[in-house]
Amino acid sequence: MDDPDVVRACNVDWTGKVVGGAHFLLRPSSSAQLELILMLANRLRTPIHIQGGNTSLVGGATPVNSDFILTTSKLKRIRHFDSQLGRVTCEAGVTLGELSEYLRGTGYHFGVDLASRESATVGGMISTNAGGIHFIRHGGFRDQVVSLDLVTPAFGLISASSKYLKDNTGIDVGRIAIGAEGTIGVVTSATLRLIPNSASSYTVLFGVDTFSDALEKLRFARQFATLSVAEFFTYDGVVLVEEAIGARVPFRSRYYLLFQFDGGHLMEQELSDAFRNIEGNVAVASDAVSAKKLWALREHHTLAISTLGKVDKYDVSFELGQIEEFWSSANKRLESLTSSAKAYIFGHLGDGNVHLNVVSRLSSAVVDEAIIGLTLEMGGSISAEHGIGTLKSGYLSRAKNDAQLQAMRAIKATFDPNGILNPGVIF
User: Fold this and answer.
1) Do 212 and 236 touch, CB atoms closer than 8 A?
2) Would the pTM of this model clear 0.85, i.e. be above it?
3) Which CATH number fits domain 200-302: 3.50.50.60, 3.90.1530.30, 3.30.70.2190, 3.40.50.10860?
4) Which end of the chain is more exposed for a tag (fewer CB within 10 A), N or C?
5) Which run of H or of E encompasses 5?
6) pLDDT tens across 182-237, in order?
7) Pick from 128, 64, 66, 70: which is nearest to 96 by CA?
8) DSSP letters along 335-401, please?
9) Taking the chain, what is the end-to-end CA distance rounded to the nearest angstrom?
10) According to DSSP H, which parts of 11-86 are helical?
């Protein structure tokens, strides 16, 4: 397809910061078509950029060095649901929202959930090893993948699917693609494990004035095996959400903690008894409607912050005891650069994954060096769940040692010897 309006939309990343120059859009509707495309591209040494839902925040889905975009938007079939083993097999273009809707009423749900669920695709989430809000209970996307099919320039279709729960017949080649950001092959389908639905869900919003209090509340919540979600955000951020969507926070605190517990009805009584004696601000969702209102305060942060202008977004992770130091040091560095910068912090407290959004008139390169540089100095990870993409590729050599980089490049060269897939991404 070469419709300029359609192609133009695929050339801009979600943040609007990265703009590509591709002129053609390829939309295969089967693994066979995709295999043919990669075979020809590899023979002609024609770069191709792979795109799922185009929700990358690091330029990973934007074709800055390719004239062709290959999208999985037509690979939409959900092929098989196994109610006995709790597994589903679906194609790469199925969105998280579509998968969740398909599973409605089956007694199962998927273990990864993201705010971008209506556009994020299975293939894209596999390629970035997406984490999401339930990481502390169910792990990341890597933990949900039973098997997958992968089309590569060097080997064509690698069908790694297996109908068995236990299959240790050599190296699981397909799983190498998880987190590889489309640099070694294109995921066409995957078999995913599912989670049995809980009898009930219990959502609690805490308000605390110090980060040490936040960590103490997390320690308290972790004593319950049913803890599924542990999120945090600040008053500055929630004010923006209130203005953006008309929501109302039930109390004012410096830090907010959003916990979700998934279990049975006995769990509800146990938690109710435990929380009754906790001092401080607390709001408990008694039904799905009130829980949705509490969740809106967290999930609309990205939307609300984007209304302020240019935003530089950082997805980093630390040991829990380092988060407050990072927050304080990041503000000091920004203040040393300009008095007009404003930083907002929120994220997944349970696993140490922090989302820092910086609103300023500074160049992105200057802010990157301040925030990513600080993260590296503190020994944190410069990418907790969004990947490296093109925006962080220049920092990879500071985040990984030479042996790790050599191994990555060797894997890339084996599956994509002519370097046609996602040039500029990661490497």
Assistant:
1) no
2) yes
3) 3.30.70.2190
4) N
5) helix 4-10
6) 999 999 999 999 999 988 888 999 999 999 999 999 999 998 888 999 999 999 99
7) 128
8) HHH-SS-EEEEEEEGGGTEEEEEEE-SS-HHHHHHHHHHHHHHTT-BS-SSS--TTTSGGGHHHHS-
9) 28
10) 31-44
